[in-house]
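Table S2 (text version). Query chain:
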Amino acid sequence: MNSVVANTRRPCKLPVPLLVSMLIAFCSIAHAAAEEFPAPDWLNREQVSEKMIINGIPSLVQHFESYKTIDELLEFYRKQWNNTTSEKPGYREAHVPPWHIISRLDGSYLYTVQVQQYGAFSIRGYLAVADLKAMQRSLKNDPPVPRMSGSKIINDVTSFDPGKKGRTLMLVNKYSVASNSSFYRNHYLERGWKRLLDTDSENAFVMVFRKHTEEAHLVITSTQGSTQIVMNIIEGI
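Corresponding structure-token output:
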């Protein structure tokens, strides 16, 4: 397996959780044993985080960039994962604009490549290996998420770096922005958290609370008839 070219880590800004969770349902081809994630020599990779849990699934994620084309990258994986012993291909593909995705289920490991155009002459994306077998074990260890009744968790990503643990969640519900902000304000203040920021701007609340070495950052906004809550909980500050 090619070495990672840099030790720096990028925050997970792109929709890895959404696409990985979609591909778990999409991909239904099983193989006997897990393999290392192959990658062409011309793919420049760097680690996003030492360990991530995406929607309850322990995962390893790398970010990549290259001056090759999307078709060249997809063709590499079509050849790499082609199943010559069966009529069915050894991979599945999907197109969720602007992303092109190719994935392979190998035993209990889901290998996913998602790539998009980056400027006129380059591409960028992610390589992700998800351990599906460890999913239930991970879910049992997750602490409860403070939320109003009826709220749905859309995305849940936990990352681990030396001395720090970060968990980012996206929730939606039908309550107003003001009701949600009041709920979270009361939740944290009643439990001894200090309020560092609490501001309302253009129908969006931004709130930051701290307790000991833990911080909770919340952005609460109204969108398409519902309210969206993005929570970033950081331990080890």
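Notes on Table S2: Confidence is low (pLDDT under 50) at residues 1-34. The radius of gyration is 20 Å.
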